[in-house]
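Quick one: structure tokens for this chain, please?
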Amino acid sequence: MASIQRIVSPLTGDISFRAQVRVKGRSSESATFPNRKEAKDWAASIESRIREGKHFPHARARRTGFAEAAQRYKDSVLAGMDASAIKHRTVHLEFWAEQFKGLTLAEITNDRIAEARDALAASTYTRGKARADKTGAVIPPKVYKRGPATVNRYLATLSHLFRYAVKEWKLVDRNPVADISKKKEPRGRTRFLSDDERAALLDASAKSGWPALRALVLLALTTGARRGELINLRWADVDLKVGRALVRESKNDEQRTLPLAGKALESLRELKLQRSARSEFVFAQPSGLPGPYEHFDMHWQAALAAAGIEDFHFHDLRHSTASMLAAQGASLLEIADVLGHKTLAMVKRYSHLVVEHKATVIEKLVAAKGL
């Protein structure tokens, strides 16, 4: 017989329904759904398949631990991905491994995944390190809450693992993540700098305790490149004579070329004259340690504070690039190409800026021709 249980998440207040099927001579099966109808339909389907002798939970799922499956996924699947994907998915797997510590694949039920998802959504993290202000007072690093998009990426990695467990490894007969509701993602931010804010930020960056910050901000504004793409640039991939930089690893898993011009190109030339011979990265760590300077957040936040700019993220520099391009008459296709988007879907948020420019041009035409 099947039973349906109404579940209210103690963290988010979200309501879900867990269906559990118990048939004599069989072990119980359970799954969680966003509404009661789906739970009932699933339970009826499982009962029917059991009666017909078609539903047999895979015995190997009860002998295979999640840790073992995660390691297999790392060795056979992640190994073929680019460095950025490996880095992020490894972090995701470490989280799930901690949540499912000591459990077999058969024991990873929908409700356990949902509880872990809600715990992740409620968790916080920090970037950078604590720093001292001019008075010597210690300022702790800023605390961030994980957004819906981040939670959904964690779920995507887990789902990808289970897809391999179902189709290729034949360890389980279904993907439990397929029944888990994703977090609703808000519409993308369109915060961009005004002319005054842009000038103030560049001035504050020039006075930063990290001399390379101004060059980084200029590059972000003039190329529209992502934070990771810029911070991982190597001098071997930068041609200062031609004015080009090659991004070997992008979010879309494709190489792309960044045009370098104006003050951004000048700042890179100055930076190269000052660089340490030991560093292969354009934005090297000031301490001299190997690798790029990934955690420059305290310098970035200090520059924002000095410039009097609020509610602004480094990623918003991409939006600023798009807004400036739109103001110069660039089409959505051209903006997408500069920002490195494969489709126009991601740049639709800038469509109103393009329309505003077209309206201005038409108004000038009407006034000039007396139409």
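The mean pLDDT is 83.
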